Amino acid sequence: SVRRAFATSRYPIADIIVSVDEDAASRAATTEALAALDPSPVVIGHGGGDIYWARAFAELLQVALATDAEFIVHLNSDVVLTASPDPLIAAIDDDPTVGAVAATLDGDVRLTGYRRVRPWFPFFRSVPAGSAAWYLPASCVAIRCAALRSPGISLESLAAYRHGWADIELSCQLRESGYRLLTTTAPVGAVGHQRYFRRVHHFGRFGGSLLRYLRECPTAPCLADTRRFGRRVFGPLWPIAYRVYVPVAIQYVRFRWRRV
């Protein structure tokens, strides 16, 4: 879908960079399949299965910044582009004050950007498509390379996160560096995204342990990440961030009850 979407774009692809975290046999097969693409992507290979999204995101940005590209378009593996990405990139190209633009993505839940998180509201709230945002999800986002080279941007700090929140951290750093964050007016693609409080948590895959689930599940924010995120957005009120575990705790109680 990436090659089809960029086929008629006025912003040609310079490099494709893919992060793969699989065992040696699987990684070899994936790398061989990727090598058959044109253009052939740069593959960042890992084999421990414990890189998780935040570190992979930071590594991808670092490798992309080593090229001479003006813009980086980051896509998660569950995103399918269904339209030209030009509106995504043009919004940055046309306005030097814009640091990043998130694609509006359709799906079970329309994904855009988020309003500022407030202590009295438990979850992220989406902005209307085409609006400025306080935070941008990195599911499909275009980023100005010059913005990433600003003194206030630390890609190393993104890698300090484990399962998530790195895109929120980057959004904060971009805004603090004086850049605006926008979303596209029209959908650019589709994504398999669910609201956090409606997700099904598979505790059984982690031995029925809640703590192991929070430590190891790549889609569950671990305790250290949530603490770091809370301090970032709430300051001294950071323990409020632990409210994200309320839906998880409710499901865990039901899980244990069914096993009794």
Structural commentary:
- A five-stranded mixed beta sheet has the order 3-6-5-7-4, with helices on both faces. Strands 1-2 form a two-stranded parallel sheet.
- The protein has ten helices and seven strands.
- It is 35% helix and 17% strand.
- Strand 1, helix 2 (24-35) and strand 2 form a beta-alpha-beta unit.
- The chain has 260 residues and is of the alpha/beta class.
- The chain has helices at residues 2-6, 24-35, 52-65, 86-93, 145-148, 155-159, 166-176, 210-216, 223-234, 246-259; strands at residues 17-21, 42-46, 71-75, 79-81, 98-106, 140-144, 180-191.
- The longest helix has 14 residues, at 52-65.
List the helices and strands and how they pair.
Blueprint: H1 2-6, E1 17-21, H2 24-35, E2 42-46, H3 52-65, E3 71-75, E4 79-81, H4 86-93, E5 98-106, E6 140-144, H5 145-148, H6 155-159, H7 166-176, E7 180-191, H8 210-216, H9 223-234, H10 246-259
Parallel strand pairs: 1-2, 5-7
Antiparallel strand pairs: 3-6, 4-7, 5-6
Mean pLDDT figure: 86
Uncertain segments? none
Count of distinct strands: 7
Element string (H = helix, E = strand): HEHEHEEHEEHHHEHHH
Task: Please state the structural category.
Answer: alpha/beta
Beta percentage is 15-25%
Q: Judging from the principal axes of the Cα atoms, what is the shape?
A: globular
**How many strands, which pairing sense, and closed or not: the largest β-sheet?**
5 strands, mixed
User: Number of DSSP helices?
Assistant: 10
Q: What helical percentage do the residues reach? A: 25-40%
Gyration radius over CA: 19 Å
CA-CA gap between termini? 46 Å
Strand order of the largest sheet: 3-6-5-7-4
